[in-house]
DNA sequence: TATTTAATTTAACGCGCGTAAATTAATATC
DNA sequence: GATATTAATTTACGCGCGTTAAATTAAATA
């Protein structure tokens, strides 16, 4: 019953009756050995539970099967969700994902990259903090390790960027809001941690002007990643001080909108597109919780799966080719209008 | 400007003028060498950026500085939050946290433990899936690796358990609800993934009976970790079918409550403790989003920081002592009533 | 059956570090 | 200043596996 303990490849070699180099070959690529020897090995594998020592394997490799995934803030379900998808794809590609969160802290972001360096990852997918990131350090890292930048685009960071088309996404939401009611006022953080926010502001202004509308922006004070709280506090203030010139609020992201909805509810405002509603509210991101807000949040969705898929594909290609791409390619995926009850 | 490249400890030894074994000693414990030699090493460390190869280090160690953290579902902000705290403590203890999520999948849970085995972690903190977990396999793992079980208690898994006092927490909420209005009906999943739910049901029934009340339970159908959705769908159904015999609903957890609130809102029910409200709703967990629901959710909080702290302490003690504790100790931390607007 | 080709075996070295024993040097104690 | 103590150095081996070259064997082809 009790399987014999096999301590190393040497022992497994004699146990299976296959020479050690061949066993080694098998573990690197099971198809690289003859079918008959493969059977011998796999039969032996069933009778004892030997597994190669991962440290010894990686010691001589310049490149391991490790794969780093760095996100700025894992407690944000948005990043948890996209990380989950990426993890799955990475595993399917035969690599070992290592998920790291920077927890909103630029020093920890550097620490994470430092930790990744040690484990010589084959590739890295990096969603940087953004404004707070130490750009020089990130660039230095990307020069050494095949890295693709995703979610938050920082020029020069990573050998490619895969992300969300903020321009298009902002535009379709504005178009929808314009044709279905009063023009939207943009509600955002004055100093957002994430660069997508800036893209969205610019896109808002551009689109509004192109439509002959007067762009209006209400900015929330506050720093950091406690975005719902900022949306709540500043939303409450903005409503109280009557800062919104129309009945339509387009929040820069869903977390801000979640806080805003909470404030509006507390102030007794009805939100929605019915006649008896005081305000329409829209968000941006299709945050996992946006379908459970009160009312459910009309928003514009990232193409989560496409972004995850393309990101992984791009790094894998990078790894395979072993070349430095001559230019940093940028891939953006269009957003999709998610019609719910809030606007 | 360009720092000389130092490839290994040998080279660093001659670079710094300190013998290799001493350098090795330094990297294992900087205080174990004489202050003067320590200075020599650290000065050299500034002039070149050598760092020991982590794979070579761990190859000879039976025990690494790796530390595993396994949670059942990282996309749940509750687990993200507690994982974040644990990570911080583990880093402070000089260990390298490896955070793994089972994504609600029992096979992945085993895969995670398998992956952890390979990296010979000094210790592991394991929050199991619960009902779906392969208990035998978990036990086998815990026999080999110093593991402390947290959050979801599975008898026999881990050498200690640290968690939330579901009995006490349930009781204080029921007491509050009883003295402030109608008796609570318990709303839960019929087949909850997490064993805490069962504890809470039992505690609900016990407390109600001790108070001379008639316990009433409404059970939601549905499997898996999409708990908000289940809360929404089944909450909507239960309200429509008039299954609640009083105006007070005590949800088994906040995620269920979040879904329930969304359903109630959609059905036009006012939630809260005012006279004009149709329903009072309470939750359990103090989920990060519970303060942004509409209305804000009255709930009972985990002592997040105490649980995180004690969990880490317990594993560290286990690691240090290198002994198998004669009995599996269970530590529970009391919950705290979080009064908000929903009940 | 002879020949070519492919796979396996044997033997041996290297990776970067941990670690132990014996020796030497630097401090601390009297 | 002599001795005892502590720390550093020298030397050497081992960890488990990758990898390579030459020798051998097995399979595929003619």
CATH topology of the largest domain in chain A: Rossmann fold
Instruction: Give the tally of structural domains of chain A.
Output: 3
Let me know the average pLDDT of chain A. Answer: 94
Regions with little confidence, pLDDT below 50 for 5+ residues of chain A: none
CATH superfamily of the largest domain in chain A, called what?
Answer: Response regulator
What is the alpha-carbon Rg of chain A in Å?
25 Å
- Which percent range fits the helix content of chain A? 40-55%
Query: Which sheet architecture does the biggest sheet of chain A show?
Result: 6 strands, parallel
Structural class of chain A: alpha/beta
| Strand arrangement, major sheet of chain A | 2-1-3-4-5-11
Instruction: Find the count of extended strands of chain A (DSSP E, 2+ residues).
Output: 12
From N to C, what is the helix and strand string of chain A?
Answer: HHHHEHEHEHEEHEHEHEHEEHEE
Taken from the alpha-carbon principal axes, the silhouette of chain A is elongated
N- to C-terminal separation of chain A?
Answer: 65 Å
Helical segment tally of chain A? 12
What is the correct CATH architecture of the largest domain in chain A? 3-Layer(aba) Sandwich
Oligomer: homodimer
Short description:
The structure is a homodimer of 343-residue chains. Helix content of chain A is 44%, strand content 15%. Chain A is of the alpha/beta class and 343 residues long.
């Amino acid at each position: 019953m009790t399987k014999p303990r096999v301590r190393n490849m040497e022992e497994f070699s004699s146990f299976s009756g296959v020479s050690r180099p061949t066993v080694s070959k098998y573990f690197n690529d099971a198809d690289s050995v003859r079918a008959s020897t493969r059977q011998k090995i796999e039969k032996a594998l069933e009778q004892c539970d030997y597994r190669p020592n991962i440290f010894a394997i990686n010691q001589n490799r310049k490149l391991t099967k490790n794969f780093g995934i760095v996100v700025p803030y894992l407690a944000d379900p948005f990043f948890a969700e996209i990380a989950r998808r990426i993890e799955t794809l990475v595993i399917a590609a035969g690599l070992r994902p290592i998920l790291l969160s920077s927890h909103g802290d630029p020093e920890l972001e550097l620490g994470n990259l430092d930790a990744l360096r040690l484990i010589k990852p084959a590739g890295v997918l990096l969603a940087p903090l953004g404004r707070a990131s130490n750009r020089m350090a990130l660039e230095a890292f990307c020069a050494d390790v095949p890295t693709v930048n995703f979610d938050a685009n920082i020029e020069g960071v990573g050998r490619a960027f895969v992300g969300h088309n903020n321009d298009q996404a902002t535009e379709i939401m504005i178009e929808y809001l314009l044709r279905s009611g009063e023009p939207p006022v943009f509600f955002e953080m004055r100093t957002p941690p994430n660069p997508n926010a800036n893209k969205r502001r610019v896109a808002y202004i551009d689109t509004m002007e192109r439509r002959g509308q007067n762009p209006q922006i209400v900015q929330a004070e506050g720093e950091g990643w406690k975005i719902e709280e900022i949306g709540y506090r500043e939303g409450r203030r903005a409503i109280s001080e009557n800062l919104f010139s129309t009945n339509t609020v387009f929040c820069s992201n869903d977390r801000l909108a979640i806080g805003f909805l909470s404030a509006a509810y507390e102030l007794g405002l009805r939100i929605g597109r019915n006649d008896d509603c005081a305000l329409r509210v829209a968000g941006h991101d299709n945050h996992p919780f946006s379908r459970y807000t009160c009312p459910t949040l009309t928003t514009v969705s990232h193409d989560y799966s496409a972004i995850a898929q393309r990101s992984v594909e791009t790094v894998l290609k990078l790894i395979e080719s072993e070349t430095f791409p001559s230019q940093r390619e940028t891939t953006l995926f269009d957003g999709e209008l998610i019609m719910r009850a809030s606007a």
